[in-house]
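Researcher: Can you fold this with nicotinamide-adenine-dinucleotide in place?
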Amino acid sequence: MRVLITGGAGFLGTALANRLAAEGHAVHVLDDLSSGDAAGLAAGLQFTRGDVRDVPRLWTLMAGVDLLYHLAAKVSVSESILYPVDYNAVNTGGTVAVMSAARDAGLRRVVFVSSGTVYGQPEDLPVPETARARPLNPYAVSKLAAEHYVRAIGDQVRIETVILRVFNAFGPGQGLLPAHPPVVPHFLRQVRGGGSVVLHGSPPGAQTRDFIYVDDVVDALLRAGSMGGISGNTFNIGSGRATPILDLVKAVERAVGRSAIVLQSPEQSGGVSRLCGDIRAAERMLGWKPRFSLDEGLRRMLPGLKA
Ligand SMILES: NC(=O)c1ccc[n+]([C@@H]2O[C@H](COP(=O)([O-])OP(=O)(O)OC[C@H]3O[C@@H](n4cnc5c(N)ncnc54)[C@H](O)[C@@H]3O)[C@@H](O)[C@H]2O)c1
């Protein structure tokens, strides 16, 4: 199968591209390298450096392609609060460009990687896909708007669409750029190096997140790209467990074999206090189940973690 992956030089995209290539698919990656690094891509993969909003280039890249995974995005919640115009332009505008080119190219299926942040702060946890989405920051708004474009354009022209709302993915290759490091590689680096970690809120570290290991996300992406009878569906992809940030610190301490220096700070704006996805739809319809625990995933991250 010929597969195009936008954002394929990023954390999740690289893992997906390399797995698809290892399974014998012809994979082409489009990425502007604003936060990705093409050095992680396996030999033999095709790579084009470019902006996902460049529709004529997308037309060229989509010729003969069966399946598109759309991952290109700006991904920092805190940065999105500072630069909402950029987040709207790349995440929402980029998705409109991708879907409009996919329409012209007559693609069979688009898999869009959305985010568990679209729910905002759900009343009931774990949150099912049917819950009302009330995004609380520009990043989450841009992903929800993009979901609507994927469905609206896909449905009009009969492109199959599958949306995965990924929760807090973590694993090797994450957090290459130091400016806005995701929490897991940041905590691992800090504790390993004898630095401090900051817990927000009151009581500190009580917020929960749903951590899902990168290989589990890739398993779900492969199923979303290949299974019949799932077009039009949206799936939560998480562990189904709510992990308090304080428990993440303890898991990091176990993985590193060193105690953390813990500092406290007020609540962060734009964040949610508790989040965890109901993953029963993915289990039922994709036949998917997470395989890796938080402890196992952290152990696998350590050897490749750069200082
Ligand atoms: N990592 C997570 O926990 C998580 C959770 C939910 C959703 N997601 C989604 O998964 C996707 C991948 O996220 P990630 O964690 O791998 O982040 P990442 O930053 O590593 O990957 C995003 C990639 O998109 C590229 N990109 C950004 N703007 C671009 C543009 N204008 N044109 C072309 N390429 C561009 C970047 O260079 C990068 O390689 C994103 O859509 C993100 O919203 C990630």
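Model: Folded with nicotinamide-adenine-dinucleotide in place. The mean pLDDT is 95.
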